[in-house]
Write a structure and sequence with these properties.
- The chain is an alpha/beta fold.
- The chain has 3 domains: about 220 residues, FAD/NAD(P)-binding domain (3-Layer(bba) Sandwich); about 130 residues, no CATH class; about 110 residues, no CATH class.
- The chain is built from 15 helices and 20 strands.
- The chain has a 7-stranded mixed β-sheet with strand order 8-7-16-17-18-15-19, with helices on both faces. It has a 5-stranded parallel β-sheet with strand order 10-2-1-14-20, covered by helices on one side. The chain has a 3-stranded antiparallel β-sheet with strand order 5-9-6.
- A hairpin with an 8-residue loop joins β7 and β8.
- It is globular.
Amino acid sequence: MKSQAEKVLIIGSGIGGLSCAIILAKLGFDVTVLEKNHQPGGLIRSYTREGLECSVGIHYLGSLGQGQVLRKFFDYLGVTDDIPVSRMGENGVIDRYLFDAPETHPPSFDLPEGFDAYEENLIQAFPAEQACIKKIVTAIRKTSDQLHSLDLLYSTENDFALLDQSQPYGEILDNLGCSPGLRSVLAIPSSWIGVPLADCPAYYHNMALASYVSSSWRLQQSGTDMADVLVNRLQELGGKVITGAETDKILVSSRVAEGVQLKTGECLNGSLVIAAVHPQVVLQMLPDGAVKPSYRNRISKLKNTHSVFSVHARIDAEEHPEIPYNIFKIETNRHGDVPDLKYYQIRRSEKQDSSLLSILTSGQDETWAPWKKTRSGRRGNEYDDTKEKFAMELIGEAEELFGSFKDLKMLDAYTPLTIRDWVNSPDGSAYGVLRSSSQILATALLNRTPVKGLYLAGQNVMAPGVIGTIMGSFATVKFILGADEFRNKIRL
């Protein structure tokens, strides 16, 4: 049993670091969060351009309905009432998928709220595949039940005992004989978590899909507000956040964590260190000999998810009012796989006369290769010009869907290198470690390290997304407390 006065140092103040900090502070631990940037929040924090808030990592949330998994998490953290949200799907659409292959695909497919409505939409779009669809939706319902009941978290076995559904989802669809069109519709959730369909474990695919079909929500305010709510809650519980505090080294003696050393040279002592950053970044912080070569080799060879490119632009609000759902333009191949997609949102903004257009797509890593060794703010005019050119191409493509944008002004665009430098994600990976079937054993139990008192948190330890990341925080606390004490002390 851990002493309630035990000093905990948490590296990184994204959703993983802050949620883990709040859980431990509620249990009476002395918690300090260290953030290298000047503001906490990581990718959940939005940023302002010309008075408009531009989202980064929070575009919508799943499963915030009463009794659903994210609501349980927010209730435990004590932040539900302070994070105002609006429910999506009341017009029958959460996401609209637009396809580029009319000979094999419907022109569009709407993702609705509720499993009955989802199954009905699939059957209407693919009436010849009802038997296949019923098997698919039955499996998704099963995963939804496991997700909301927190079976994965409270399992008496190891945290991966429920991953009996580790078979690649693409392989399952092949065995069912799904058409290319149905396959493409079902491929989208694997894109949400950055895993190719052919290598995406069925459980992760179904968990991502179930979380949004259960209920989907938009923040009424900004990601910055959400980050501030989490920081304020931590401070209410006696925890601290220190910004501008970049960790250089994790102090280890005889394979026992003793604290951290900052880039400034200052050393902070703590018997528990939790790194809510990428595991490969943690390796760089550890002294030689702190872990065995086999562990270092396993973590070093982990494959990561792809990167993203995003652009935000101001458009006239009267001509382009908020669209109450998200739009995906899907690139497909003849087999029905999804090599790439583009994500669009048009939201009302802080300014009455302005709407905010947001576009996300794959990172196009090769485009930014000439600047790989540079840092943000020091990349020069050619980089800025290349970034703006790509952004305007994406906006032009968007106008093919929405019509010409009135009073458009590009506000900002960010590349994989921006993400890399901002949150220390290798190569700007958007979703961290690739949770694929082929490396499912290599990614098992990433919360725990061979160094006593050193644990990991964040999106890399269990699953990406807000739900997966917070669940990973609870799983890390479960390791710290032990399974029995965790079940006794934490009721969700």
